[in-house]
Amino acid sequence: MTAADTPSQAVGAAVNPLDVPALDTSDDQALRAPSPCDWKASLEVIHRPTSHQTFSLPGGRSLGYATYGAETGPTIFYLHGLGDCRLTGAWYHDAGLESGVRIVAVDRPGIGLSDQHVGRTVLDHAEDIRLLARHLKAATYSVMGVSGGGIYALACAHALPADELRSVAVVAGMGPFDLTMSHSNWTTYTFFNMSKLLPSIIRWAYSKELEQLNTQSLEDFISTTQTRSKAWYVPYIGPDAKDMALMRDDDFVACVYESLREVCKHGIEDHMIEREVICASNLGFTVSEIRPTLPITLWYGRRDASLSPAVGQAIRDAIGGSARLITRDEAHLSLVIGPSGPASPNLCALIQAHEGNSKRDGDPPEDAVDKKAANNLELAGRQDGHTFGDLRAAAKATDRLRKAKAWCITSFQRKTKKLEHRFGIKFRRGRMSKWGAHAYCDKEVKAMR
Question: Other CB atoms closer than 10 Å to residue 143's CB: what's the count?
């Protein structure tokens, strides 16, 4: 157990979000803290033939996948995040080797080596996983969904046969769209709703990024990424020093470069479709329908500014049964690949579930996380110094709803100006700023009551 996981810092305890140190951009030493993984080794693994495999599905579509870790042993299917591909599974290669686990990272349709699948849903990809498991002769297996892959992991939990799927892990992951947005911060809420309300803006922004990526050398990409990490990335994503250390690591950024180029092989349309799929209001199932006997582990970082423990708490409450929530003193990226997250050498949460053990030595303790504490940690560590969770608590205590709403609107307008500066566009104030701010803040004020 690390110092970060001591009982005094458990989320279930009375935790003050402001006790979590915010990012201090003046501390360059903190920003350049050593990364938890050997990124040079990950780059080498990415270029192996085992990272570039395809499987022909019965309908004729090709499904791209990569294998990492041990050649034999328990199989874990890795479901990548939004904007990622199978190559990010290389982050778990060393952990898989040490644990004796085979990790199979799969491209979703229209991404990397996988063909398009018109009209697909998250449940369709679960069927792809089942067919690939049979192709790889994996009689039983587990599934791990990271970030945007979390909803696909939940789809697998619902759809895959009980005699095949042994366990599921969601790591800093999205749940159903409405559930996730109801516990999201301002940035995440706006970002995903813009995709639904103003898709042309998102498409334009991605087109510009793709155009630049296709002509950029690795050196230029590293330079651009690190420059952005000092500018727009910090106020929008809100990482603390743990995530910023990764963004300042040239070898890690090189891994991201390889992944992004693979993601964009088919252009941006499939990426836009991917966003539509995970943001769909009707997924074809509800989380409450997942079989309660399936071991499900939900990993969330208490410093994560985009997908907080409140999301994991809501998913656990909806599933019930054997679902368990584990929180760590990590941010988004550092949880996914850090030493105290599921990338730790023994992949303990998945393996213990796969082997059918209720507990094993080294298994991380489950934090007792209640809704109130989780909600108050939604934006812990943000430079803004305030969270909508804080506002809800303040409004309940003082009944100053008007002031809370006015603050929300002002914050929305300020962040909109940053978006305009970032993308070089101009929003019509009468629509985006006024309507968007009031729509979001009405939702927040309703929650305050």
Answer: 30
CATH code where residue 97 lies: 3.40.50.1820
Shared domain check, 394 and 301: no
- On whether residue 230 sits in a domain, the answer given is no
Per-residue pLDDT of the chain (449 residues; tens, 9 = 90+): 333 333 333 323 322 222 222 222 233 333 333 344 678 888 899 999 999 999 999 989 999 999 999 998 889 999 999 989 999 999 888 888 888 889 999 999 999 999 999 889 999 999 999 999 999 999 999 999 999 999 999 999 999 999 999 999 999 999 998 888 888 777 777 778 777 777 888 888 878 888 788 788 888 888 887 777 665 555 555 566 777 777 888 888 898 899 998 988 888 788 788 888 988 888 999 999 999 999 999 999 888 878 889 999 999 999 987 799 988 888 888 888 866 555 554 455 455 445 544 343 344 444 433 343 334 333 333 333 334 444 444 434 444 445 555 555 566 666 666 666 666 666 554 444 444 555 545 554 455 44
Cα–Cα separations (whole angstroms), residue 90 to 32, 45, 66 = 22, 7, 9
Distance CA 438, CA 128 (A): 41
In this structure, are residues 288 and 261 in contact, taking their beta carbons and an 8 Å threshold?
Answer: no
The answer to whether residues 329 and 345 touch, using CB atoms and an 8 Å cutoff, is no
Amino acid in the structure at residue 337: I
Name the 3-class secondary structure at 358: coil
How far CA 14 is from CA of 2, 8, 369, in Å, comes to 20, 9, 10
Name the 3-class secondary structure at 133: helix
Pairwise CA distance, residues 140 & 154, whole Å: 17
Whether 339 and 432 share a structural domain: no
Q: Which residues of 240-269 are buried (b: 16+ CB within 10 A; e: fewer)?
A: bbbbbbbbbbebbbbbbbbbbbbbbebebe
> What number of residues does the chain have?
449
Question: What pTM, to 2 d.p., does this model score?
Answer: 0.72
Domain region containing 318: 3-23+36-185+269-376
